[in-house]
UniProtKB/TrEMBL annotation:
Biological source species: Actinomadura citrea
Domain AB hydrolase-1 span(s) in chain numbering: 48-139
GO molecular function, one term: oxidoreductase activity
Parts of the chain that traverse the membrane: 129-150
Cofactors: FAD
Family stated for the protein in its record: Belongs to the GMC oxidoreductase family.
Gene3D superfamilies: alpha/beta hydrolase
Full protein name: Alpha-beta hydrolase superfamily lysophospholipase
Length: 366
């Protein structure tokens, strides 16, 4: 079982796939990106590394969209060495659709992220290492950081959410009550109508997602109008390139129900908390990440689209809380006007509107 191919533009970037299995046995995917034409100059050995972490059910594909100027292109041009981790919630991994594979964000924070950081460090030696993380990749990273498992990063960019999750009232209701009913019937919420079939147990979910939708595409409705049935929205529709819109089912996989109990506990606590309280393997993780925020030892850029339809202004709240409680921490907040949740990375104009903020933050600390 291996990860499916990345959709990076042929010829623009060379992707070196590095075999990577987490120490609990889970097969993950790690890749280093360089220029495809082998034009690595001597100075390229000095490039700071940037590890990119996708959101739940997305994959590293979200950073290498061939149809737009993507974040990997921009980082290469700016003199960085991008690294891509597909953690266990990636739709590129067979694991994500495997009904037997249960996991929580504790596993991502304890195994996937620290072990990927260690593998990258084995390769880059003493070069600086940044992490840019999206959504539940960023939330899991916050748990790794407050556990002290990834010390000494040069800086972290967290998009959408970090230590202080915040959902709309309607999303909370669906997640706490609707999903409790759903969880007994299904193991995943699919996004690809073609795979789910026209008449299936998932049909009511697609019907629900279509209510009030302006776009006729069922996969788009599931993501833009419903966010896997929690009633949130993952992007501002007009920000997507037509070609990105046509392959949303490639970019996002089905949402596994196994993570819902942990998400619910996190949501009720309004901060990132550990799921496994009695299992000694997870003792390294803090029970409450916000209370352990004094362990964050690097600058943090919190980012969010002004129209984030999933986590709302959670990252602004996170900035305010961290700035008040930890005045010596270098934390800043950037809001991207007119953008939603995931379009700051996959939007057609993200290179113009968003990536400059990321590169500016990295450049100040390279
Ligand atoms: Zn659409």
């Amino acid at each position: 079982m291996t990860a499916r191919r990345l959709h990076a533009r042929h010829g623009a970037a060379a992707i070196e796939h590095i075999p990577f299995r987490a120490s609990d046995g889970t097969e993950l995917a790690l890749a280093r990106v360089t220029r495809a034409n082998g034009s690595e100059g001597a100075a390229d050995g000095e490039r700071p590394a940037v590890l990119l972490l996708h959101g739940l059910t997305a994959s590293s594909d979200m950073f290498v969209l061939p149809e737009t100027r993507n974040l990997v292109d921009v980082l290469l041009d700016a003199g960085y060495e991008p690294w891509l981790l597909d953690w266990r919630g990636s739709c590129r991994l067979p694991h994500n659709d495997d009904d037997r594979a249960g996991y929580s964000f504790d596993d991502v924070a304890l195994y996937d992220i620290p072990e990927a950081v260690a593998r990258v460090r084995e390769r880059i030696g003493g070069r600086r290492l940044f992490v840019v993380a999206h959504c539940l990749g960023a939330l899991s990273l916050s748990l790794s950081m407050t556990a002290g498992l990834v010390p000494g990063l040069a800086g972290v960019v967290a998009q959408g959410v970090f230590l202080t999750p915040k959902l709309a009232a309607s999303t909370r209701l669906r997640m706490h009550f609707g999903f409790e009913v759903l969880r007994r019937r299904i193991r995943h919420v699919p996004v690809d109508f073609r795979k789910a079939g026209f008449r299936s147990r998932y049909t009511p979910l697609f019907a629900l997602a279509s209510l009030g939708a302006d776009c006729p595409d069922p996969t788009c409705q599931m993501l833009h109008n419903s966010a896997w049935s929690v009633g949130a929205s993952l992007f501002v529709h007009d920000q997507l390139d037509r070609r990105t819109h046509e392959r949303l089912a490639d970019l996002f996989g089905s949402a596994p129900m196994c993570v819902i109990p942990h998400l619910r506990r996190i949501e009720l606590a309004h901060t990132v908390v550990r799921w496994n309280l009695s299992d000694g393997r997870y003792r390294a993780l803090p029970e409450n990440a916000l209370d352990a925020a004094d362990r964050i030892d690097c600058p943090v850029l919190l980012m969010s689209g002004s129209e984030n339809g999933l986590w709302l202004d959670a990252n602004k709240l996170c900035h305010d809380v961290l700035a008040a409680r930890h005045p010596r921490l270098d934390v800043r907040y950037v809001e991207i006007p007119g953008y939603g949740h995931v379009d700051p990375f996959i939007g057609r104009s993200a290179a113009l509107d968003v990536f400059g903020h990321i590169v500016e933050f990295l450049d100040e600390r390279r």
